[in-house]
Amino acid sequence: MDLQIKGIAATPKGQDVLFSARKKSLKGWRSKSRATHEDRPAEVPSLDLGKLGDSDDENNYTPLSKWYPRLGCPDSSSTVSWGTPLQTPVRRHRSQKAVQPEDESYDDITALDMKALVQQCYTSKPYTVQQSIRKLEAEDLAAQRRKQAVVEQVMIDQLSRAVISDPEQNTIAGNDEAVHRLQGFGPVPLRFRKRTLHDTKIKTNLSLTENVLSNKLRFDARIISRNGRDACRELIGFFFGYDKSLTIYEYRQFGRNRTSTLPFIKKGIYSHQRGRRKGKPYELGDFYSGANLTFLTCDHLNLSDSVKQNPLLTLRLIDIDDKALDSFKSTLMENQQGLTKELDDKATFLAVQNMVKEKLSKRGVRTVTRLGKFFRQQDKKGNGLLCKSDFKEALKYFHLELPEKIFESVWTILDENCNDRVDYGEFTRAVIGEMNEYRKEFVRKVYMKLDPSKTGSVSMTDITKFYSARKHPQVLTGTATEDDIKSSLLETLVDACSNPNEVSYCEFEDYYEGLSLGMSDDEDFVNVLRNSWGV
């Protein structure tokens, strides 16, 4: 056969015949092969990942999830690890609708407490001595400029209002002459009976002068509120010694250069709206750092709707002009007797706080945040008021029981109207206590940085973005990574929040209220905020 093929291929015609035969044979093989593959399913070769070698660049590669940890996996049934310990608390709080009673082991230190205590390790100063001095000088200069702008606006408003509204302005010689000229023509037209700006005297006998208004006491204040927008308002007030009146202005800043100063509480003589001296007018002795001023919101129509939701507006004085206060020392001594009962109430609260302080030294964050969440869930009406049984139940759940006699003493002081209703914020501050104003000032600075638009809530994405653990001692020594420290913060915040995707102002403040209980030194607490948030 091979000889026959070789003989045919020897001629040109034979080569053509042989080529045609091979072409037909190839077509038959292809059709047969196609039919075979159609009958049999396709097989995918297995991939052996164990034979792959490590590249030189893998040690320098940083996964995306390391710098931007996910707050939860998109599919609860997925078994893929997303590199963050926040998956469990996120799923837990989405399904959990109410705070459950704590068991007997609540006093023990849990893993969540240990993660919260990690945030207390920032004790190193974030700046050198020279940097700290320059930063403090810049902050003081900016604060002085704000206060000076408010002082100038107050002087302008009060002086101009006093002059224009003085009754003596109505007796103007020019108007009298115009009236005499028109007596023969019947009634005097209305336009001649009204005083114009050109007829206004610059000075009258009864009008205020700058020297009278200069006898004033300046103070800084903030609103005690669970609303972040109201709590971060910058208020500057003045108490005038000549008539014992007061006024409060709000300083607003839009961007870097645009500012405005608007009246918040109009000038007038006001009285205490709660406390031992309810109904008595404010005296000079009522103005000191840490004091509260109360006003009825219905008397001030220019207040925001969020402030008007509560019938009572409470302001906390955070700073006082010491130089002006020294000039009023003689008057201040006369009013010290009226403060005796209030000081006794504060002594009662301090004794209660000392009783629970030791219990909260290690579990402060967990207790304060969950206690606040419990009160907000019990507050069905949203007015912040709860009854006595609710508070007793809360103290029992969180192992903060008080002797019956001491609890009744606290309740008698707080329940002024005897209606069995007390604001749970005041109850918490009375039993557990609160940070001093120096610490609260930095907490507000951090929250204002996170929420520049003053919406009242901050997303967890922004928390992750702004928080920095680079200067944490465990990161510097290599015992923990930045992601570990950041995850510990996020997990404790998620446990504290009703919505796991955002943090409200009251929840953010409760977190640092609990953290503050275990830190006795103010500078250590401030360094925690400066190192981690860059304020």
TrEMBL record:
Residues 366-401, 402-437 form the EF-hand domain. The gene is CAPS2. It comes from Microcaecilia unicolor. Gene3D superfamilies: EF-hand. Residues 24-34 have a biased composition (Basic residues). PANTHER family: CALCYPHOSIN, CALCYPHOSIN-2. GO terms for molecular function: calcium ion binding. The keyword Calcium applies. Keywords: Calcium, Metal-binding, Repeat. This is Calcyphosin-2 isoform X3. Residues 24-56, 79-104 are annotated as: Disordered. It comes from the Eukaryota. Pfam families: EF-hand_7 (PF13499). InterPro entries: Ca-bind, EF-hand-dom_pair, EF_Hand_1_Ca_BS, EF_hand_dom.
